[in-house]
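Q: What would this chain look like folded?
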Amino acid sequence: MGSFRYSSQVLHSFVKEKKGIVGKKLSSKDIKNAEGKIVGKEVRVTLESETGRVAIIEWILKAAQLSDVTTYHSVLLVDYQRIRGVDYSAIERTKFFKTHIPKGWHENVVDPNTQENRHEPLDLGNVSDFEDFSVKIAKLWNIDYQSEGRLL
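A: My prediction, written as structure tokens:
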């Protein structure tokens, strides 16, 4: 098993430390159905650590269906490697008689050094729409975009 560029402790600190949007820019793409109607959205944001660490940090938000909050998904990447994710599971999934993926919202805690991918229950409260989801994930991962107004 190879070692990732950043240790487990450094990856954890990337999540905890304050991050801002690089150049105050984001990339947004509409997801359309067969009739051409916009049904979803994907947003990609390049972030920078306010501590000055040099790394490629990217935040991806996706709504397969804007009208269904259970299709929302978010990922935090460091050097193109997933280190965190937030998803919704309608049912609890078990492995060897233990909860592997809890029912409801959960956060994937991924460590490329150990190949670990824990699914920890996450209380996001009532998620009303994609903007609300984005605000809650930004707070969870300490991403500052409120000074720029709405993300989406």
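The chain has one domain: 8-147.
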